[in-house]
Amino acid sequence: MKKLLLAVLIGMGRIAVSQDVFIARNGETSFFSETPLENISALNKNVTALLNVKTGEMVVKMQTAQFVFPNKLMEEHFNENYMESDKYPTATFSGKLVETIDFSKEGTYQISAKGILLMHGVKKERTLDGKLTVAKTGLLLTCDFNVPLTDHKIEVPKLVFEKIAEVIAVKTKFSFIPFTKN
Q1: Best exposed site among 82, 124, 155, 171 by fewest CB in 10 Å?
Q2: Domain presence at residue 15
Q3: Each residue of 134-146: pLDDT tens digit?
Q4: What's the average model confidence in pLDDT over 153-179?
Q5: What is the 3-state secondary structure (H, E, C) of the chain?
């Protein structure tokens, strides 16, 4: 999947392969839904992200079926009834950093990325805010944001409407290292 993602990006001319490209091979995305009846949470530790520090362009891609839940029944309902993972197997964010960051200087920066969030087959323009830490060992990017289910046409059956929040809290964490061909 990682090689395919990089090939697609290079083919699109969006990210050139050089010392300017950083990759997060095992990024994390989690979500949490809090309601009076039941809390739902899940974690995906197989998220791939690429960041071109020269252009500020970035791409994040995940397989929706790779979210792990504390309860297998929740996982089954998530994949079959809500995300329809067979029909919409991936979720992506493709965008560009709004701020210009001097990646040669270590430090922590508040950043925004503007782009397209594709989830459940629906594209939605988003600006996501996060924190980027530049260190000698690499880059760490964290971002928390909310996803209204209606934005991506994710329907909640009326029978379980009180068990699932209408807006899902999402957290991401990516540890980037310089990209090298294997």
Answers
A1: 155
A2: no
A3: 999 899 999 999 9
A4: 80
A5: CHHHHHHHHHHHCCCCCCCCEEEEEEEEEEEEECCCCCCEEEEEEEEEEEEECCCCEEEEEEEHHHCECCCHHHHHHHHHHHCCCCCCCEEEEEEEECCCCCCCCCEEEEEEEEEEEEECCEEEEEEEEEEEEEECCEEEEEEEEEEEHHHHCCCCCHHHHHHCCCEEEEEEEEEEEECCCC
The domain total for the chain is 1
Please give the residue range of the domain that contains residue 41: 2-10+23-178
Query: Does residue 134 fall inside a structural domain?
Result: yes
Higher pLDDT, 18 or 43: 43
Question: Which CATH number do you get for residue 114?
Answer: 2.40.128.110
Look at residue 123 and tell me whether its pLDDT is greater than 90: yes
